[in-house]
TrEMBL record:
<keyword id="KW-0560">Oxidoreductase</keyword>
<dbReference type="InterPro" id="IPR057326">
    <property type="entry name" value="KR_dom"/>
</dbReference>
<dbReference type="InterPro" id="IPR002347">
    <property type="entry name" value="SDR_fam"/>
</dbReference>
<dbReference type="InterPro" id="IPR036291">
    <property type="entry name" value="NAD(P)-bd_dom_sf"/>
</dbReference>
<dbReference type="GO" id="GO:0016491">
    <property type="term" value="F:oxidoreductase activity"/>
</dbReference>
<protein>
    <submittedName>
        <fullName>SDR family NAD(P)-dependent oxidoreductase</fullName>
        <ecNumber>1.1.1.-</ecNumber>
    </submittedName>
</protein>
<feature type="domain" description="Ketoreductase">
    <location>
        <begin position="8"/>
        <end position="187"/>
    </location>
</feature>
<comment type="similarity">
    <text>Belongs to the short-chain dehydrogenases/reductases (SDR) family.</text>
</comment>
<dbReference type="Pfam" id="PF13561">
    <property type="entry name" value="adh_short_C2"/>
</dbReference>
Length: 244
């Protein structure tokens, strides 16, 4: 365990699986005390907590559906109470519905925007009430905010473009308070969401491989750390030159 985030208090939304779980692991590895939310994967959440506490880390899970702003804000307040404050917010929870426009339902459109755009907004609103100077907010956007990779991702791309734009605007609002707001924009990453799609995806990535979940997690940890205090309003793409 390194000490770059020693005693920092963090909450990660959607932290039980995939990139979110890798972010939780990395923050704990660097000394942070971490709360994370999950929606529909209690077994994965418990397994992650057990794994991290067994190695001496501090982590706990809170059930919250990011589509419910009031419930998400209540989970953040609960985390703040248990942690004794808040230094880092990582908005990672997201959803992807892949469908062409003729097949896209209004319900799927509304849920995508609720989880990928509305939830981060209200999470940042609540988190900022508890942060002091030196606070860090990191939003997990996507490289589709830079370039559309395939047909059928229009709504997902819209939501992630909105999240990146919101990141830049809120950086201006929070900078006078000493709080930074940045985004990472991962490309194809090996998680359960991309299982079975590797052959299709790899043809689009000049690097010839997909990212390991630990790589975007390491970028989040850097942006949350002491050396990133003057990085604010940035959107850092991590996709092996896919959108270069």
């Amino acid at each position: 365990m390194s000490a770059s985030l020693l005693n920092k208090r963090a909450i990660v939304t959607g932290g039980s699986r995939g990139i979110g779980a890798a972010i939780v692991r990395k923050l704990v590895e660097q000394g942070a005390q971490v709360a994370f939310t999950y929606s529909a994967s209690p077994d994965a959440a418990k397994s992650l907590v057990d794994e991290l506490t067994a190695t001496g880390g501090t982590a706990f899970a809170l059930q919250a559906d990011s589509a419910d702003p009031a419930g998400l804000q209540a989970a953040i307040r609960q985390a703040v109470d248990r942690l004794g404050g808040l230094d880092i917010l990582v908005n990672n929870a997201g959803t992807l519905v892949h469908a062409l426009i003729d097949d896209f339902s209004q319900a799927d459109f509304d849920r995508t925007m609720a989880i990928n755009v509305r939830a981060p907004f209200f999470a940042m609103q609540e988190a900022a009430r508890h942060m002091q100077s030196g606070g860090r907010i990191i939003n997990v956007s996507s490289n589709v905010a830079v370039s559309a990779a395939v047909p059928g991702a229009s709504v997902y791309g819209l939501s992630k473009s909105a999240l990146t734009a919101m990141t830049r605007s809120l950086a201006h609002e929070f900078a006078p308070k000493g709080i930074t707001v940045n985004a990472i924009q991962p490309g194809p990453t090996t998680t359960d969401m991309t299982s079975g799609m590797e052959d299709f995806i790899l043809g689009m990535v000049p690097a010839g491989r997909m990212a390991h979940a630990s790589e975007p997690a390491a970028l989040v940890a850097y942006l949350a750390g002491p050396d990133a205090g003057f990085i604010n309003g940035a959107a850092v793409t991590i996709d092996g030159a896919m959108t270069a």
